[in-house]
Design goal:
Blueprint lengths: L1 E6 L6 H13 L6 E5 L1 H10 L5 H9 L8 H7 L5 H12 L4 H6 L3 E8 L5 E5 L5 H10 L9 E3 L2 E5 L8 H6 L2 E7 L14 H7 L4 H8 L1 H18 L2 E4 L14 H26 L7 H11 L6
Parallel strand pairs: 1-2, 1-7, 2-3, 7-8
Antiparallel strand pairs: 3-4, 3-6, 5-6
Helix pairs in contact: 1-2, 1-12, 3-12, 12-13
Length: 304
């Protein structure tokens, strides 16, 4: 039974996801496949390359660097998050991304983008962790109005969260039957219509299908939350979400705030470790490997 993990986006709410994934790496929790959306893609790829600590490290180090994120970058290049710095200089030289380890890890890693001409989701498997894959991750995280569209394989691509913020159905369609979904909003959250829609309609007037997708995004998102609740009740899905509202924006230049959200992710993940192991090694699919893993987590066999 294939296991998978879904990584929601949310810009700097992704520090929560980084904390969760670092704990999973430390606890040797693995999956057969993963799908990341936006920040879930650009941060989640470090889960496949097995680089705990990298996401919080470089975000804290460069959060005040105008090459990383700045209005200056937006005005000069059309990208709030600098494309050359984020997807070339940083992973190649300043805090290297381990593409060799990424390729060696058998876990499949998918990203979600939105086709600007159709408004539909585009799913792409990133198998090498090379420059081309990083461009797909960049496309997944290209927030409308503050990022340029990314042209790949004859498509114009934008932020994946517009078309499919929580792609659980996609993983199910790929044959994954036990799925953990890492969300970046607390329980009870309901997405509201985007307050920037009037501006988005003007800025993206040449892409009416993308605008339409943005107009109905909150409806799709809330419907997906209802679907997640149903799958949780059925026992095929486990949702990890922040225990509190993260209260952090798309851009955060305070390293302490990044660390705060990261630590919430770590704390919530540590509290859920036993639940995650139990879910992945449920009674119906129990194997000796699962039993050994659960014993290690609990500190010994029952009654020891």
């Amino acid at each position: 039974m294939k296991t998978g993990i879904v990584l929601e986006g949310g810009a700097m709410r992704g520090m929560f996801t980084a904390g969760v994934l670092d704990v999973m790496m430390e606890q040797d929790i693995t999956f057969d496949g993963a799908v990341g959306v936006s920040a879930g893609a650009v941060f989640g790829c470090n889960y496949k390359s097995r680089q705990p600590g990298r996401v919080i490290r470089y975000n804290k180090r460069y959060c005040r660097d105008p090459r990383y994120v700045s209005i200056r970058s937006l005005l000069k290049t059309g990208d709030l998050y600098g494309e050359n710095f984020c997807y070339h200089e940083l992973p190649d030289r300043l805090d290297p991304f381990d593409a060799a380890a990424y390729r060696k890890n058998p876990m499949e890693f998918y990203v979600v983008c939105t086709d600007a001409l159709t408004g539909e989701a585009v799913y792409h498997r990133c198998g090498r962790g090379d420059a081309r894959d990083l461009q797909w991750m960049r496309a997944s995280a290209s927030m409308p109005m503050v990022s340029k569209l990314v042209e790949l394989e004859g498509r114009l691509l934008s932020d994946g969260g517009t078309a499919d913020s929580i792609p659980v159905r996609f993983l199910e369609g790929q044959g994954y039957r036990r799925i953990v979904a890492v969300l970046t909003q607390p329980k009870g959250f309901s997405k509201q219509p985007n307050k920037l829609l009037p501006l988005l309609r003007v800025a993206l007037r040449n892409y009416p299908a993308l605008v339409r997708a943005l107009e109905v995004r909150h409806e799709r998102y809330n419907e997906t939350l209802r679907y997640l609740a149903q799958r949780e009740r059925e026992g095929s899905l486990l949702v990890l979400r922040p225990s509190q509202a993260l209260k952090i924006g798309a851009v955060e230049r305070d390293a302490e705030q990044l660390e705060r959200v990261y630590q919430i992710g770590r704390a919530d993940a540590l509290a859920a470790v036993s639940k995650i192991h139990t879910f992945l090694c449920s009674a119906a699919e129990r194997s000796s490997a699962c039993t050994d893993r659960e014993t290690a987590v609990s500190g010994g066999p029952e009654g020891a």
